[in-house]
Amino acid sequence: MEALIEFVTDSTVCKRNAVLAYFGEKRKRVCGQCSGALCKKAYTEEIDLKPKVIQLLKSKPHSIQELKQKLYFEPQALHQLLKSLLDEEQIIMEQDYKYHWNYE
Ligand SMILES: [Zn+2]
């Protein structure tokens, strides 16, 4: 019962690994698909975030708020991606505080 309560209330760990650990199996990698915080992070960073952001910015400039509204991604993953795109000069931030696609 205690293990079950911990499983339901702990939002940080990988749920799959928690179940496996309960039955004595240890996994190092998280599954990337459950609702655990670690898995959500892995999930949002992997799933097509970059192509989606690039597609949006190619269509028109977006502020970070507009991107968040359209993408539903964890802000952290989005900030990291925008920073790397800025570093690569694929996008630029103009005086309107919107990100503009820098090519084509
Ligand atoms: Zn998981």
List the helices and strands and how they pair.
Elements: H1 2-9, H2 15-22, H3 37-46, H4 49-59, H5 64-71, H6 75-87, E1 91-93, E2 99-101
Antiparallel strand pairs: 1-2
Bound molecules: zinc ion.
The site of zinc ion has 9 residues, from helix 2.
Structural overview:
Helices cover 56% and strands 6% of the residues. The chain is built from 6 helices and 2 strands, in the order H-H-H-H-H-H-E-E. It has a two-stranded antiparallel sheet. Strand 1 (91-93) and strand 2 form a beta hairpin. The chain has 2 domains: 2-43, no CATH class; 48-101, Arc Repressor Mutant, subunit A (Orthogonal Bundle). It has helices at residues 2-9, 15-22, 37-46, 49-59, 64-71, 75-87; strands at 91-93, 99-101. It binds zinc ion. Zinc ion (ZN) is lined by residues 14-16, 30-31, 33-34, 36, 39.
For the report, how would you describe the main beta sheet?
2 strands, antiparallel
The count of helical stretches stands at 6
Element-level helix/strand string: HHHHHHEE
Derived from helix and strand composition plus strand pairing, the structural class reads mainly alpha
CATH domain class of the largest domain: Mainly Alpha
Describe the strand arrangement of the main beta sheet, using strand numbers.
1-2
Question: Which percent range describes the beta-strand content?
Answer: 5-15%
Rg of Cα set: 18 Å
- Within the CATH hierarchy, at the fold level, what is the topology of the largest domain? Arc Repressor Mutant, subunit A
Hetero groups: zinc ion
The number of domains is: 2
Q: Identify low-pLDDT runs.
A: none
| Average pLDDT over all residues | 85
CATH architecture grouping of the largest domain: Orthogonal Bundle
Helix content: 55-70%
